[in-house]
């Protein structure tokens, strides 16, 4: 749909003053086929983005209220906005033939939207995005956990007990860039805690919805998120009880085949445990497979950058796919 | 056995130059009924402990090789030494009527020793310590995880599926105070990783041994430890599938009764998630109970200081118990 | 004035929900001669302090608005409140014979109050506190910097050039426990910056006022504070150009004599540089002296805990002094 | 000397397994006109670099002992090696017409080498590098401090007192990637300390040598380095006493003119203090100017990434200059 590479994709970024907005800007100012035409940031309207983030200099652009967007010269809008914001505007944009990539949770449960986890749903994304559409960019925990679980649930769903555990561990940037006492440095350094246990985190229904679709059966995971004293990075440790006799060799084979052509998926060998720092500022996911023979349990750990692969670089991967660019363009 | 409170317990500390050794010294120099008579530190023999740890000043004592210990004026020796060291000397000490509290893993699988998790095995410790004995001080992950699991496995072992998951998260001090590139600051800050997955961590057999004893049936847990970028603190998140219909109210009742008189166990309410920082430099454990109704899973999170409750303050709690002092003396 | 040790000092703590308030509570619940009678926290009025800080459990007390304080059973009130709060109430308290220790900046420039840096002004504090009075507890940077500079400026003020530089480095807790985006974890981890350069920090006039008093001549320092990615701890590096020929041996002698009987001042030897962690949770200050022979410059580094010696434990040291207890009681 | 852009610069990197080596690799695998032909790492010889640093994958190359380098297909060798290593080999390389960029301290005092601080010595570097030569890449503290001081010392050296103070603050990566107890995480998190005070740091004579050259008079600075609990980033705070009457407007003008065409130098406005995180992974330096009117002191703070601008990206900037590429190629 965008084969004319002489033209740049004209993008707007809403939520420019947050961490995912900042990452989108950093990626897109170096993207050879995109051009930032609009920065929306309601709470910072009127400020220059390089005054908010001096590291962006010499790039400079004024932040504006979303209402000021000039839709005639925009091809795509990224919404890195608080939940509830995107859904107010997304339909109008689609009607005007403008693509929407929604990094918030607004459209992840909407059957009219496509779920933008490219490695799993590439064909569906391509199919549904021939005309302007809304791509629901996956959550950070769900990106990591689904990448870890999809090969098994897709290939041998009956080989695993349905009592699936996902223990999530995220850096603090996942809580956003906002004034809250609970996330100030002194509250969190040298500290660790779980939160939203027992199904209270919004990524739990997202896991269930997407994993059920992949497994072609109802999946209901346990998901326990934890706040880790680091800014960036995310790890999920997933536990699957095997109810059929499958060797680790077969499991590695399933993963290798499932992700055979995926340039952003790195399957580590047995003795190399994933370090979240390896994924920082990249669109990569590092997967490690372990079978605990004495309990017949599969432990799959998966490390990503929560703000990049878990949000902004994945959003650009979606843009690249939809606009028929090489998926790693600018990434 | 030590009812004469006019006399102080004369203790030796081996492994004085490590983090658990340092914590033992800090606790014991303020302990009203103990007196440090010997500091063993083979690699730092000849150095003064306040040169190694200037924060200890004005306390000062020369570190010596273990061989130099004068056994005539010692009642108890703490071994905060690398694995393999304590077992070389422990029998001789017992024969000379000197108590041994072994913070290393040397005696945790020895039927001749008592497992020093006071809240669970108090009666057994009292019983077996009437004469000089070896107390195997529990590991850090196992302290946290067993405190979380014991009430259920002790009271209603048949109500839970045996597919128990323990996801452990520890501060870096658990790796010890030694020269290794993998634990230098730049390798670990802003980083998170699992390690020793699939049963390779030595606390896994310790979990199985002790939990089986508590449950009066064979328990075989999955245990996955993770390295968290903080110095001190440890959290275990334990997942138990309920196979009988038990309400969270009943579960809270079981915990409240099991730990009714325990001054170091803090059972948090539903909306207060444990923060490891609350346990720092204390002998406390903070427990949180959550039942995920949709999966019938119990998630028990438990926060301790890995070096205090997970090692040194627990060792002093054992000393207090054995020497018939109030358990929280000096803690 | 308080020789009857059978009675406890009845204290109120205003600003209980902040970091200095928390430290005051921790110290005072273990203080053998003090009893907390009132916790003021206007923004958290009605909440129990152990719900705000679960680590305090089993200590529990409801926070109230300051107006609810019952003055008949209070001997002393600590104000760990935002600037401007204490001065509204302090006079009324004094008139009712209640001592005020003000940890805010409200009274540090008031000639009617005594400046509570005990090591320097002990006699004056004793003299002025015979009746109820206001003690202006020093700022954190000023505590560290004045302890470093006082021996020289007091003993040989004419030997140093008046171009004195104080480079301050503080943990983030110094910014308080409040909801501000600039101090959230993700903004500050792996980051370092100066702030309030060029005399904009309120501790600069405090330095000048107090150092001038000590030196008996006008002192005008350069003071540059920096925010360090750690929660607690503070270091000042002070640079003094020597204009007379004085050896490092003479300088060490001046310091050793000046602090001869001070139990909280630790003068390190030449090869031991102060580490802020040594001072954590203590009332100690660690001083290091270095003479750069090639530039004839004295570099004095000084490490404290910004919340303890820099605020709360120093406030309790003042209370102990005023109420004729041993200065280190409960510290 | 390298105008044929159809050919790539063939580079070797010695010290590939350290932090500066890793940064060089990351920069050079994305550099459009360079090609890595050799990775030297004596202690890791035989290992693949992507096994040491999995984040480099899919880039892979075996590390070798330096002796195995094949000099016939190398144009330039970067030495990111311990001090003393480069000088053993540099002369032979020059004789074989191979450029040497030495990131160690071996050649910074050698009059036969050029000091590679491009913003200050660009003409001299171009002049001396017409044939193969050794470029002594500046130290990290000196890069930051000299960039801060050069405009004044170059333009108005007589306007400042010679009592110059440089207070340096560096992330831990500056200590290298090696097994030393003093730099393990638990020793350094929540901790801060000075080190090598009184002229003991090797960057002090480097400051004096280079600043004297810039000022055309003898300069002898005070330099006090400090270890900050963060991995990357470096700030110097420099204090200059003005002995002539110069306004901050004039000073800003001097800086703006001195760095007029420098794309990597960012002069911040008065109210924007430099944050080291803004410089991370970049070749940028952020400078802030402040005149303290009451003491007539100029405070210049300067923030860089100690591993990038302070070492590796600066080394590539030198390569670009010498090989007649745009200076920011690949940066």
How do you describe this structure in short?
Four copies of one chain form a homotetramer. Chain A has helices at residues 19-29, 49-52, 86-95, 118-128, 140-155, 185-188, 203-215, 248-258, 308-322, and strands at residues 9-14, 34-40, 76-79, 99-102, 114-115, 134-136, 165-170, 193-194, 222-227, 234-241, 265-267, 285-292, 297-304.
Number of domains of chain A: 2
What is the helix fraction of residues of chain A, given as a range?
25-40%
Poorly predicted ranges of chain A: none
Q: Please compute the radius of gyration of chain A using only Cα atoms.
A: 20 Å
Q: Could you list some keywords that capture this structure?
A:
homotetramer, 331 residues, Rossmann fold, Dihydrodipicolinate Reductase, domain 2, 2 domains, six-stranded parallel beta sheet, 9 helices, 29% helix
3D architecture notes:
Four copies of one chain form a homotetramer. With 331 residues, chain A is of the alpha/beta class. Chain A has two domains: 9-138 and 310-322, NAD(P)-binding Rossmann-like Domain (Rossmann fold, 3-Layer(aba) Sandwich), CATH 3.40.50; 140-306, Dihydrodipicolinate Reductase, domain 2. Chain A is 29% helix and 20% strand. The first copy, chain A, contains nine helices and 13 strands. The mean pLDDT of chain A is 96. The longest helix of chain A is centred in the middle third of the chain and has 16 residues, at 140-155. In chain A, 57% of the residues are buried. The two termini of chain A are 21 Å apart. In chain A, the strands form two sheets. A seven-stranded mixed sheet of chain A has the order 8-9-7-10-13-12-11. Chain A is globular and about 60 Å long. At the A-B interface, strand 7, strand 8, strand 9, strand 10 and strand 12 of A face strand 7, strand 8, strand 9, strand 10 and strand 12 of B.
């Amino acid at each position: 749909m965008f084969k004319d590479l002489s033209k740049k994709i004209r993008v707007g970024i809403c939520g420019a003053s947050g961490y995912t907005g900042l990452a989108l800007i950093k990626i897109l100012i170096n993207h050879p086929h995109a051009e930032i035409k609009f920065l929306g940031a309601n709470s910072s309207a009127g400020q220059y983005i390089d005054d908010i983030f001096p590291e962006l200099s010499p790039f400079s652009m004024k932040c504006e209220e979303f209402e000021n967007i000039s839709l005639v010269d925009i091809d795509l809008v990224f919404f890195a906005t608080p939940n509830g914001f995107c859904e107010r505007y997304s339909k109008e944009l689609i009607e005007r033939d403008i693509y929407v990539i929604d990094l918030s949770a607004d459209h992840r449960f909407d059957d009219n939207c496509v779920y933008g986890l490219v490695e799993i749903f590439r064909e569906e994304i391509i199919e549904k995005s021939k005309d302007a559409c809304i791509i629901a960019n996956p959550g950070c925990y769900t990106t990591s956990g689904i990448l870890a679980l999809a090969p098994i649930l897709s290939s041998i769903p009956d080989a695993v007990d349905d009592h699936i555990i996902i223990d999530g561990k995220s850096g603090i940037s996942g809580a956003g860039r906002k004034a809250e006492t609970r996330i100030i440095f002194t509250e969190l350094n040298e500290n660790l805690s779980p939160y939203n246990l027992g199904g209270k985190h919004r990524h739990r229904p997202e896991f269930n919805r997407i994993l059920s679709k992949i497994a072609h059966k109802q999946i209901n995971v346990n998901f326990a998120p934890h706040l880790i004293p680091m800014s960036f990075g995310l790890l999920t440790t997933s536990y699957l009880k095997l109810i059929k006799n499958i060797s680790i060799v077969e499991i590695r084979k399933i993963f290798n085949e499932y992700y055979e052509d995926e340039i952003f998926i790195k399957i580590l060998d047995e003795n190399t445990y994933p370090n979240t720092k390896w994924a920082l500022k990249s669109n990569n996911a590092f997967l490690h497979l372990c079978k605990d023979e004495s309990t017949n349990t599969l432990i799959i750990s998966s490390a990503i950058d929560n703000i990049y692969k878990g949000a902004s670089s994945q959003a650009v991967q979606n843009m690249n796919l939809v606009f028929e660019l090489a998926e790693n363009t600018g990434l």
